[in-house]
């Protein structure tokens, strides 16, 4: 509302600015979500919170044990190695350290079970949702990303084309153009950051698979991998995926493989 507030800021000036902004024909408004969309969004956000808590606990466990000379690589796959150290009777770790580390390991196991339960709930919701089922036909879009798109993304009619949706997600470069000369910078990182993160993660998995197995010859992905770094290719692929997501939501269609190879 700041561009429409005149001089001093008070309740009357704020109300006038709100009325002025609401009367503008090109003003963008936040879409009203249904109770079902809010419930699906809460499931996703709760899962995201539990994943962050598990990551923090794992990092804390690794950090404490590093001070005692026990090193383990990052990731949940190596927790069993730390658990074996806790059960080793010949370990030189102090008794309080062993007890506290076991407490952290039990907390991690509890968080993992809760995350798995939410994953099953998300997959069940995705199978029942027609929109999420269509989005899951896109390579790199799983149940979590599809449900997040269905719950958090604005209605597709909010945007005139897929490019506008990708720009809203922050997957297009910032512009600092003037005098007819275009200057493009890094991605703007605008819009809903959770959706942008999920699309980039999905695109990264597709890029890793293509780098290992080989992308279809002559495809856009093969050309990008031949001349661009993988991370840049993943962000560019996420941009394309965002446009495909908008098209499937707007036209109620499923993903066609032939369009991706062009």
Tell me the layout of helices and strands.
Layout: H1 11-22, H2 35-66, H3 79-87, H4 95-128, H5 130-135, H6 143-152, H7 162-169, E1 173-175, E2 184-187, H8 193-213, H9 220-227, H10 230-251, H11 257-260
Antiparallel strand pairs: 1-2
Helix pairs in contact: 2-4, 2-6, 4-6, 6-8, 7-10, 8-10
Domains, number = 2
* Helix content bin: 55-70%
Strand line-up across the major sheet: 1-2
- Helix-strand topology string: HHHHHHHEEHHHH
Identify low-pLDDT runs. none
Can you give the mean pLDDT? 88
Strand % is under 5%
Alpha-beta classification:
mainly alpha
Shape: globular
Instruction: Give the termini separation.
Output: 44 Å
- The total strand number stands at 2
Gyration radius over CA: 24 Å
Describe the sheet with the most strands.
2 strands, antiparallel
Please tally the helical runs, counting DSSP H or I stretches of 4 or more residues.
11
Can you give me a brief rundown of this structure?
The protein has 262 residues and is an all-alpha fold. The chain is 63% helix and 3% strand.
Main attributes?
262 residues, mainly alpha, 2 strands, 3% strand
Can you describe this structure?
A two-stranded antiparallel ribbon has the order 1-2. It is 63% helix and 3% strand. The model has no long low-confidence stretch (mean pLDDT 88). The protein is mostly helical. It is globular, with a radius of gyration of 24 Å. Helix 2 (35-66) runs antiparallel to helix 4, helix 7 crosses helix 10 (230-251) and helix 8 crosses helix 10 (230-251). The protein has helices at 11-22, 35-66, 79-87, 95-128, 130-135, 143-152, 162-169, 193-213, 220-227, 230-251, 257-260; strands spanning 173-175, 184-187. The chain has 2 domains: 35-128; 131-174 and 192-262, no CATH class.
């Amino acid at each position: 509302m700041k561009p429409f507030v005149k001089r001093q800021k008070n309740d009357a000036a704020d109300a006038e600015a709100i009325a002025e902004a609401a009367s503008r024909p090109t003003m963008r408004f936040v879409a009203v979500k249904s109770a079902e969309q809010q419930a699906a969004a809460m499931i996703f956000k709760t899962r995201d919170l539990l994943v962050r808590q598990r990551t923090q606990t794992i990092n804390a466990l690794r950090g404490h044990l590093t001070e005692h000379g026990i090193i383990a690589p990052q990731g949940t796959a190596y927790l069993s190695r730390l658990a074996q150290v806790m059960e080793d009777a010949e370990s030189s770790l102090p008794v309080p350290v062993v007890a506290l580390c076991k407490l952290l390991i039990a907390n991690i196991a509890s968080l993992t079970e809760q995350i798995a339960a939410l994953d099953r709930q998300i997959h069940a919701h995705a199978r029942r949702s027609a929109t999420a089922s269509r989005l899951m036909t896109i390579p790199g879009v799983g149940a979590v990303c599809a449900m997040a798109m269905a719950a958090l993304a604005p209605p597709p009619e909010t945007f005139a084309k897929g490019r506008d949706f990708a720009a809203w997600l922050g997957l297009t470069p910032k512009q600092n153009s003037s005098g007819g000369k275009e200057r493009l910078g890094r991605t703007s990182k605008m819009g809903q950051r959770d959706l942008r993160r999920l699309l980039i993660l999905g695109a990264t998995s597709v890029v890793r698979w293509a780098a290992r197995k080989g992308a279809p010859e002559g495809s856009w992905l093969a050309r990008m991998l031949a001349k661009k770094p993988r991370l840049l290719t993943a962000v560019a692929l996420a941009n394309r995926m965002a446009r495909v997501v908008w098209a499937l939501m707007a036209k109620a269609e499923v993903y066609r493989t032939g369009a991706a190879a062009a």
